[in-house]
Design brief:
Distance between the termini: 35 Å
Number of helices: 20
Largest sheet: 6 strands, mixed
Protein name: ATPase subunit of ABC transporter with duplicated ATPase domains
CATH class of the largest domain: Alpha Beta
Strand content: 15-25%
Helix content: 40-55%
InterPro entries: AAA+_ATPase, ABC_tran_C, ABC_tran_Xtn, ABC_transporter-like_ATP-bd, ABC_transporter-like_CS, ABCF_ATPase, P-loop_NTPase, Val-tRNA_synth_C_sf
CATH topology of the largest domain: Rossmann fold
Structural class: alpha/beta
GO molecular function, one term: DNA binding
Number of strands: 20
Keywords: ATP-binding, Nucleotide-binding
Organism: Microlunatus kandeliicorticis
Number of domains: 4
Strand order of the largest sheet: 5-6-7-3-8-9
Radius of gyration: 26 Å
C-alpha cells in the first residue's frame, strides 16, 4: 500500500498534562481508520496534528508529495453571509454542478430539507454543520479527516454518510480517518481502529466489533485493576456476537475466538426478570396514548404534528423512537412525560407511574452548580442495586467512569461528559419507574456509552429512547417505533425497516421534512432483473474464488506444520506464499461483502 502521510516521534503537551508522547504511525492508501478513546485523551489533537492543523511539540509529520487532505473540524468556520448554495458550490452555474453525480448525491443526502437560497446566518448550528460537511464532501481529496461527522445527522443521514464513504474511493485508494462516538458508523466504515489512551495509540484490525474482541483479549492478560473494564467489554461483546449477523461477518472478525470468550456469558439482560420487577413496581397500567393528536397554532392556522396515535406502553417495555428531525419525536415524548397535553384524544397514566427524563440539556444542574459533587450525592439514597449487588452513589459514579478525585469538584467546573454522568446518577437515585432518554449520547465517549448501557441492562422499569445513535438504540431497546407522516408505526424489522420505508417515501417524493427549495438528488433507479442476475453471478464467482483461496491457505498451513523446523529457506518460502494468499483472501472477502450488500440493497 502506498504511503500517504504519517507521524514520527510526535509528542504534545498542554500546561497541565502530556497528551501524546513519542507516537509513530501512518496512513496508507486504502486505510479506513476509526479513532476511539476517552474524552480528553487526545483524539482530536492527533487528527489535527496529522492534518497539519496543529504543530506537535516534538517529532514531525511527513506527507507524500501532492497528497490533498480534507478536514471537517468540530468548530463552525463557515461565512455566515453566504447562502447555502454559494457555500456548497460557489458561483458555479447549476448545469455545471448538477451534472456531477457526486455533488447531486451529497446534496440529496445532507441538504434535502434546506432552502438553497437561505443565508447561513439563518440556520441552526446543526444545519450549518451539515452544510460544512457537504461542502467538504463535494471536493476531490486523497485523504478525509472527519471529527465527529455524525453530529446533527439523523439515522438516515448517518446511513447515507456511511454508504458515501464506503463507495467514495476505489478499493485500495484514498485514506479516511474519523473520530466518532457512533459505534454503528465505526463498524460500517472502518477497517482499522486506533485507540488513543495514556499518551499512546494502539492499533486494531477491523471496526468497532473487532476492536471490542481484541481489546477483551488484551484486557484478559492485564493487571487486576483492569478487571472491571474487561468484564464490561465482555458483556458488550456478548451482545455484538448475538446481535445482527452483519456485525460478525466483517473480514478479520475472529468468530471462533469470540465464541470461546462468550461461551459462559449470560444474555446481556434477563428480560423476563426485568418485566416481573417492572410489573411489581408499576402494575399493569403504565401510560396509554389513546387516539391522540397534537397541533400547534401558527398565523396560518393550526399545524398538525401528530394524529390518531394509539400507543399502550407496558411495564418493562424497552422501546426506541425513530423519525426524521422535526417529525414529532420530542412531541411524542412530551406527551408521555406530561410536559405537553394533546389537542385531541387523551393520555391515561397509571397511579404509580413516576417519569424521569434524561434530556439533551444539562439545565437541571444549573441550580446546584455551585455545590460540590460529594455534597449533592450525600443527600441522596445510600444504595442502589445493580445486578443483585448494592452500590453506594460514589461506587455508581465510579462505575460510570467518574474519577474519585472529581467528587470534591464544584458541579459547574465539571466537563460536559462528567455532568452528563452525574445527571444520570441523580435521576436513577430518585427511583423513577419510567425513564425517557432524549438523545442521551451527547458528550459521551465509547467507554462511557458502554457503561451506560451496562447500567440500563439491569434497570427494572419502562425505558423509552429517542436517539440518532443506532448502536445504542439497538443495544438497549427490544423494539422500535417510528414517527412517520404524523403517525406512530411499529417496526418489527427495526432500523433497517425504517430506512427502507424512508427510501420508499423519498422515491415517491413524499418527504414531509422537505421544507426548503434545496435541489434534491435525482432518485436512484433500482437495478433491473438482468443487472441483479449479473450481480448474482459475480457473487457466486467471488464465493468460489474465496473457497479456493481458503483451501489453498489450509494446505499451506498443513505443509508448514510438516516442514522441518531447521529448513529456514523452505519455511520462509511457505510463509511468504501464505502471506500473499491471506492478502488475496482479505480482498476476496471485501469483494464478496460489497456484492452481497449491493444485492441486498436492491431487493
Amino acid at each position: 500500500m502506498a504511503y500517504l502521510l504519517g507521524a514520527e516521534g510526535v509528542g504534545l503537551s498542554f500546561p497541565t498534562r502530556d497528551v501524546l508522547s513519542g507516537l509513530t504511525l501512518g496512513l496508507n492508501e486504502g486505510d479506513r481508520i476509526g479513532v476511539v478513546g476517552r474524552n480528553g485523551d487526545g483524539k482530536s489533537s492527533l487528527m489535527r496534528i496529522l492534518a497539519g492543523r496543529l504543530e506537535p511539540d516534538t517529532g514531525r509529520v511527513t506527507r507524500r508529495g501532492g497528497v490533498t487532505v480534507g478536514f471537517l473540524d468540530q468548530g463552525d468556520t463557515l461565512d455566515p453571509t453566504l447562502t447555502v448554495g454559494t457555500a456548497v458550490v460557489g458561483d458555479a452555474a447549476e448545469h455545471e454542478w448538477a451534472s456531477d453525480a457526486r455533488i447531486r448525491d451529497v446534496i440529496g443526502g445532507l441538504l434535502r430539507d434546506l432552502d438553497w437560497l437561505a443565508p447561513l446566518s439563518s440556520l441552526s448550528g446543526g444545519q450549518r454543520r451539515r452544510v460544512a460537511l457537504a461542502t467538504l464532501l463535494i471536493g476531490d481529496w486523497d485523504c478525509l479527516f472527519l471529527d465527529e461527522p455524525t453530529n446533527h445527522l439523523d439515522i438516515e443521514g448517518v446511513a447515507w454518510l456511511a454508504r458515501h464513504l464506503k463507495s467514495r474511493w476505489p478499493a485500495g485508494a484514498g485514506g479516511l480517518l474519523v473520530v466518532t462516538h457512533d459505534r454503528w458508523f465505526l463498524d460500517e466504515v472502518s477497517t482499522l481502529t486506533w485507540e488513543v489512551h495514556d499518551r499512546t495509540v494502539d492499533a486494531f484490525d477491523g471496526g468497532y466489533a473487532a476492536y471490542v474482541l481484541q481489546r477483551v483479549e488484551r484486557d484478559r492478560q492485564a493487571a487486576a485493576n483492569e478487571l472491571r473494564r474487561q468484564n464490561l467489554m465482555r458483556k458488550e461483546l456478548a451482545w455484538l456476537r448475538r446481535g445482527a449477523p452483519a456485525r460478525t461477518s466483517k473480514p478479520k472478525f475472529r468468530i471462533e475466538a469470540a465464541n470461546q470468550l462468550i461461551a459462559a456469558e449470560p444474555p446481556v439482560r434477563d428480560s423476563v426478570k426485568l418485566t416481573q420487577l417492572a410489573t411489581a413496581r408499576l402494575g399493569k397500567d403504565v401510560i396509554d396514548l389513546l387516539d391522540v393528536s397534537v397541533a400547534f397554532p401558527t398565523p396560518a392556522g393550526p399545524r398538525p404534528v401528530l394524529g390518531d396515535v394509539e400507543w399502550r406502553i407496558g411495564p418493562g417495555e424497552r422501546s426506541g423512537i425513530l423519525g426524521a428531525n422535526g417529525a414529532g419525536k420530542s412531541t411524542l415524548l412530551n406527551l408521555v412525560t406530561g410536559v405537553l397535553e394533546p389537542t385531541g384524544g387523551r393520555v391515561k397514566r397509571g397511579k404509580t407511574v413516576k417519569v424521569a427524563t434524561l434530556s439533551q440539556q444539562l439545565t437541571e444542574l444549573d441550580a446546584i452548580g455551585h455545590r460540590r459533587v460529594r455534597e449533592v450525592i450525600a443527600e441522596l439514597r445510600t444504595g442502589y442495586v445493580v445486578d443483585g449487588k448494592e452500590f453506594t452513589p460514589g461506587q455508581l459514579l465510579e462505575r460510570l467512569g467518574f474519577p474519585t478525585a472529581q467528587l470534591s469538584t464544584p458541579i459547574r467546573d465539571l466537563s460536559g461528559g462528567q455532568r452528563r454522568r452525574l445527571q444520570l446518577l441523580l435521576i436513577l437515585l430518585d427511583e423513577p419507574n419510567v425513564l425517557v432518554l432524549d438523545e442521551p449520547t451527547n458528550d459521551l465517549d465509547t467507554d462511557m456509552l458502554a457503561a451506560l448501557e451496562d447500567l440500563l441492562d439491569s434497570w427494572p422499569g419502562t425505558l423509552l429512547v429517542a436517539t440518532h445513535d443506532r448502536y445504542l438504540l439497538e443495544r438497549v431497546t427490544d423494539q422500535q417505533y417510528a414517527v412517520i407522516d404524523g403517525h406512530l408505526r411499529h417496526l418489527p424489522g427495526g432500523v433497517d425497516q425504517y430506512l427502507q420505508l424512508s427510501a420508499e417515501r423519498r422515491s415517491r417524493g413524499s418527504n414531509p421534512s422537505d421544507a426548503g427549495t434545496a435541489p434534491a438528488a435525482a432518485p436512484t433507479a433500482g437495478p433491473s432483473a438482468a443487472e441483479r442476475r449479473t450481480m448474482g453471478k459475480e457473487l457466486a464467482a467471488a464465493e468460489r474464488q474465496l473457497n479456493r483461496l481458503q483451501e489453498r491457505a489450509a494446505t499451506l498451513h498443513a505443509t508448514l506444520a510438516e516442514t522441518d523446523p531447521s529448513d529456514y529457506g523452505r519455511l520462509t518460502e511457505l510463509g511468504s506464499e501464505l502471506s500473499g494468499v491471506q492478502a488475496e483472501i482479505e480482498d476476496a472477502e471485501l469483494r464478496w461483502l460489497e456484492l452481497a450488500e449491493r444485492i441486498e440493497a436492491s431487493v
